[in-house]
Design brief:
The protein has a domain of about 80 residues: Rossmann fold (3-Layer(aba) Sandwich), CATH 3.40.50. Helices cover about 30% and strands about 25% of the residues. It contains nine helices and eleven strands. The strands form two sheets. A seven-stranded mixed sheet has the order 6-5-4-7-8-11-10, with helices on both faces. A four-stranded antiparallel sheet has the order 1-2-3-9, with no helix packed on it. Strand 5, helix 4 and strand 6 form a beta-alpha-beta unit. Helix 2 crosses helix 3. It is globular. The structure holds zinc ion. The site of zinc ion has 8 residues, from loops.
């Protein structure tokens, strides 16, 4: 008998099996995971999610725990982020701004946001990693170690960042509802999340697409399924854009090269640390940059604001 399951995006219990995937990126487990596609909203989701094994599936060499990268590609990205943040924060007309980064680690993105807009004063991070607290304090940010649903405060935030986070959580609609509660009336939520309705998602569907980030991405949205999830949480989309998904292309390509014996990925040297990863990412960033003019790429930026009604 199939277990009862509901789409984490829209709640529908109508689904089809989409594909199977394994942790080829970090090799933390030999288990094979099943991804389902919701027949109602077309989100993809993992079921069941390995919520009891977080310390295994997020190993100590997981990329977001690493020191800040100082490479040229990373500096370009920081410069682009700064420009992007500056454009968005200027839409909030206040003398000083409060900001919250959900899953923000030691606060690199908040640092960039503060460099982009010097009105950003009161900054807070909510993250599950106890080891990030000291680094966050050093960067001048407040830190709450726990899930966003557990974070209680009277502060309302003008800018909430959730960059590549919502796809990792068990209940995305609950997270969005909580963010709405924490948002000031004129505030914005900036979200980045993969798009499972992309060319590479189709090409690599049965070959461990990089965007599956299996088993760490639990819900993968399309533009319209995420809009629905946000609407159900009382939020509306202020602006939307696709952005380059080069890391997914690079990861998928490395898996394909491994299939023909040209590269080797190990637990000690996962995909992100493979010497071909950075050059492949550079090439695909260019490819997606051109393609992004007319096609749906595999990462999406949403800027949300409070909806007219809950
Ligand atoms: Zn759904």
């Amino acid at each position: 008998m199939k277990p009862t399951q509901q789409c984490p995006c829209c709640g529908s219990d109508s689904f089809q099996e989409w594909t199977k995937a394994t942790d080829r990126e970090y090799r933390t487990t030999d288990e094979t995971f099943t991804l389902y596609r919701c027949n109602n909203c077309e989100s993809l989701y993992l079921h069941p999610v390995p919520i009891d094994r977080l310390s295994i599936i997020y190993p100590s060499n997981y990329y977001s725990f690493a020191e800040q990268n100082t490479s040229i590609i990373s500096s370009i990205k920081t410069g682009l982020d700064k420009r992007f943040f500056r454009q968005l924060s200027q839409s909030v007309k206040k003398q000083s701004l409060t900001a919250l980064d959900v899953g923000g680690g030691v606060g690199w993105e908040l640092n960039v946001l503060q460099e982009a807009d010097n009105r950003v004063k009161n900054t807070m991070i909510v993250d599950l990693d106890p080891d990030a607290a000291a680094g966050a304090a050093k960067n001048g940010h407040g830190y709450f170690c726990g899930r966003i649903e557990e974070y209680e405060t009277t502060t309302k935030y003008d800018i909430i960042l959730m960059l590549n986070l919502i796809e990792h959580v068990e209940f995305p609609s609950e997270v969005l509802k909580k963010c709405r509660e924490l948002l000031s009336d004129e505030g914005i939520i900036i979200i980045k999340t993969p798009n499972c309705d992309a060319l590479d998602a189709r090409i690599f569907r049965n070959r461990n697409w990089g965007g599956f980030h299996c088993p760490r991405h639990w819900t993968l949205f399309t533009k319209s399924s995420f809009e629905l999830c946000a609407k159900n949480a009382g939020l509306s989309v202020k602006t939307f854009s696709y952005t380059q998904g080069a890391p997914f292309w690079a990861t998928s390509t490395l898996f394909a090269l491994e299939n023909i014996g040209m590269v080797k990925i190990t637990k000690e040297r996962p995909v992100v640390y493979h010497p071909l990863y950075a050059p492949l990412t550079g090439i695909f960033a260019g490819f997606d940059f051109i393609r992004g003019i007319f096609a749906k790429t595999s990462q999406m930026f949403f800027v949300l604001e409070k909806g007219k009604q809950i």
